[in-house]
Amino acid sequence: MKRPLKRQTVFSGRVFEVGIETHQLPDGRQSEFEIVRHAGGAAVVPRLSNGELLLIRQFRPAIGCMVYEIPAGRVDPGETHQQCALRELQEETGYRAGRIQPLGGLLSAIGYCDEYVALFVADQLTWVGQQLESDEVLDVCPMTLAAALARLQQGEMTDSKTQVALLRLALLEVEEQKP
């Protein structure tokens, strides 16, 4: 990633930092951009032994409503994306994974933010108990991949990381069924 020529931080919080950055464009010109810098995150599709997925329905203050999503969170300092996914899985669903597999990742809002979210699928789940943070309001919603994809197609799953992870999981399952 190319570094900015100049950066003026206008806000720095616990989740992200906002700055005005000067960048050199590929044609040599320079221009200013408002950029959000984020440590990154991880998200995980938990899969029970019966094949059902554990999605969550979580209150999101930015949009003022409950949203279907997969467990996810911000990477803590010194933590890998995989460690973050496993931590969030346990905190939000109450399950620990015996196996975790990468599903790729995504850049969440490349027009103004550098947040990268690594995606995983977790299997061999064991119940250990939820550990929700004080500001989290969520319900665990078991459903099949087919039901989740139907909700996605009907516009009930608008969260981008969840959409991408479910579609990648569907592609993975198709690949796993090939002879």
Question: Which regions have little confidence, pLDDT < 50, spanning 5+ residues?
Answer: none
The top level CATH class name of the largest domain: Alpha Beta
What spatial form do the alpha-carbon principal axes imply? globular
Could you report the average pLDDT, rounded to the nearest whole number? 95
Protein structure class: alpha+beta
Strand portion, in percent? 35-45%
CATH homologous superfamily name of the largest domain? Nucleoside Triphosphate Pyrophosphohydrolase
Architecture of the largest domain, according to CATH?
Answer: Alpha-Beta Complex
Task: Give the spatial strand order of the biggest sheet.
Answer: 7-4-9-8
Q: Give the end-to-end Cα distance, rounded to a whole number of Å.
A: 40 Å
How many beta strands in the DSSP annotation?
10
Encode the helix/strand succession as letters. EEEEEEEHEEEHH
Question: Which range best describes the helical content: under 10%, 10-25%, 25-40%, 40-55%, 55-70% or over 70%?
Answer: 10-25%
Total DSSP helices? 3
Q: Summarize the biggest pleated sheet.
A: 4 strands, mixed
